[in-house]
Amino acid sequence: xxxxxxxxxxxxxxxxxxxxxxxxxxxxxxxxxxxxxxxxxxxxxxxxxxxxxxxxxxxxxxxxxxxxxxxxxxxxxxxxxxxxxxxxxxxxxxxxxxxxxxxxxxxxxxxxxxxxxxxxxxxxxxxxxxxxxxxxxxxxxxxxxxxxxxxxxxxxxxxxxxxxxxxxxxxxxxxxxxxxxxxxxxxxxxxxxxxxxxxxxxxxxxxxxxxxxxxxxxxxxxxxxxxxxxxxxxxxxxxxxxxxxxxxxxxxxxxxxxxxxxxxxxxxxxxxxxxxxxxxxxxxxxxxxxxxxxxxxxxxxx
Length: 302
Description:
By secondary structure, this protein is an alpha+beta fold. The chain is 36% helix and 22% strand. The chain has helices spanning 3-10, 30-33, 43-47, 50-62, 73-81, 93-101, 134-144, 156-168, 184-193, 202-208, 248-258, 261-269; strands at residues 16-17, 36-41, 65-70, 87-90, 105-121, 148-150, 177-179, 198-201, 214-218, 230-238, 271-272, 275-276, 279-280.
């Protein structure tokens, strides 16, 4: 599928195209104004509204347009593998590492984090309220055969969910385990209507909480829960050495903006109903240099 044909098909309803302008400096920067950055990203950045906020600021700063496609981490990385995007913003480190090992991505940066939470109906049929470990909560959901709505879409959230089931020693299946194949917002709505449990990133849940009859039963590390529920986000440029058509310069400008003090401040100050949804991670006096390479990489190649 040709790149622009893909965008025409994929961006209906989920793409954000915000053409910016620079006012008095416009005549000197017409070349930038004519450029477009293609971003593929997870649905949580779209569903929470954060994507609109950071993209609008980037466009105002650089005068370029952003075409953003929200797909879920697995699909976003697969689109980038085909050379159909310039940059990816995702949250599944194992999938990001595979993407980089295969040579498709370079110059990865830690961007921000929030965490995952286990949410469910108010009557809590599995009895998991206030449990300290997600693995124990998942076992109780399975043992009671309470309905669990899975993303089922190879997203970052789905990848984390599968890791929790594995840690819990449970192979989920049967009528109680339902794979939606949908984004986080849709899965939360489905869990609300069924009703059932699900794993959600905190940001999407908080952004939709007023419309849901669901409660958080297992907290992530932001509220003192287990590190297993940590949810870090990364941003990666697509490798121009593999895909000649990518806009690498603009991708690096985007990564630079998001990881600058200005970009990190936008992320920090973005709230919904007074709740901070994401926590910036890029600016640090003691940066983690492992962020640039797969986590298991070392200089000796061992």
